[in-house]
Design a protein that fits this description.
The protein has 8 helices and 10 strands. The chain is of the alpha/beta class and 254 residues long. A 5-stranded parallel beta sheet has the order 2-1-3-4-5, sandwiched between helices.
Length: 254
């Protein structure tokens, strides 16, 4: 982060002495250029959260109009899961630990932290939250890509599978067995499970095609029939190194 860190911070604290000390710590640190707003009541804090965006929220759980975990829950809801650092009393360490399980990024015990600790907590909580958002965004993009892939397969009415010849482990698309008109196995995806789920004659055709693909890399096509429905399979063997081979296939109704 930059030498001087510009953050929007909301301090929710009703004790004037504690509020003064926290403001002093922040002004005497790399956070001195932070935009700091202060609320003494939960109601005031919620109003500020509804009309402003804050990078970090410093929260005293015990306020004139709210106490305990409910204070945290209200702030998290109003901030839509923002970065909250809880400020607890000397005898509330167990409560502080509980707040982290409820969604707080960190907690500090009043009287047991100085400006350096406060600054570090604010910085690390903010950085950790940003990292979590990036991971969540990447996961969401991956999920969306998988959903789009499955949707495309459903529109095209074909199934897809991959095989690692060394481990015999497989990956198959969610609609592969729907396309084939048979029940998907509940066991972990392996070659033996896949073949056992198919009619014996179809399993024999696919097993033979896999054996040929292992000896002759490239693209091959074959057909088979299940309950009067004709299917075509396009099977490809890719060899990147002598010890790294993968078989991929698509199955489509004719």
């Amino acid at each position: 982060m930059d030498k001087h860190i510009n953050l929007n911070i909301l301090l929710i604290e009703d004790n004037p002495g504690d509020a003064f000390l926290i403001k002093f710590y922040l002004e005497d640190s790399v956070l001195k250029y932070a935009r700091l707003l202060h609320a003494e009541y939960l109601k005031t804090a919620v109003d500020l959260l509804q009309h402003n965006e804050f990078d970090v929220i410093l929260l005293d759980l015990n306020l004139p109009d709210s106490r305990g975990i409910e204070t945290l829950e209200t702030v998290l809801e109003a901030s839509q899961g923002g970065v909250v650092i809880v400020l607890t009393g000397l005898n509330d360490e167990e409560l502080g630990l509980q707040t982290v399980t409820k969604g707080a990024q960190d907690f500090l015990i009043k009287g047991q932290f100085d400006g350096k600790v406060l600054t570090s907590s604010v910085r690390y909580a903010f950085e950790r939250y940003q990292l979590q958002k990036q991971v969540l965004n990447c996961t969401q993009k991956l999920n969306n890509a998988n959903e789009q892939f499955d949707a495309a397969q459903q529109l095209a009415d074909f199934g897809y599978w991959e095989l690692d010849p060394k481990t015999k482990s497989m990956f198959w698309s969610s609609n592969l067995f729907t396309t084939l008109g048979i029940n998907a196995p509940e066991s972990a995806p392996t070659l033996s499970v896949f073949l056992k789920s198919l009619p014996k004659d179809v399993a024999a055709i696919i097993e033979t095609s896999i054996s040929k693909a292992l000896n002759n890399s490239g693209l091959s096509h074959f057909s088979f029939n299940i309950d009067g429905q004709q299917y075509t399979c396009q099977l490809k063997s890719d060899i990147e190194t002598a010890n790294d081979q993968q078989i991929v296939a698509t199955i489509k109704k004719v």
